[in-house]
Design a protein that fits this description.
The chain has 43 residues and is an all-alpha fold. Helix content is 65%, strand content 0%. The protein contains two helices and no strands.
Length: 43
């Protein structure tokens, strides 16, 4: 598994609960940035 694959999996794992709670349309980039502690460019 490459570093990019690991990062992708980490983002999915951290963001999935937010998407399940707020739904995709109501979830913002800021929500994902706070959950993953990554910058907007990293996402």
């Amino acid at each position: 598994m490459t570093k990019g694959d690991k990062t992708k999996q980490f983002i999915i794992e951290q963001s999935a609960p937010i998407f399940n709670t707020k739904r995709i349309a109501a979830t913002s980039m800021l929500d994902n940035m706070e959950a993953t502690q990554l910058s907007k460019g990293s996402l």
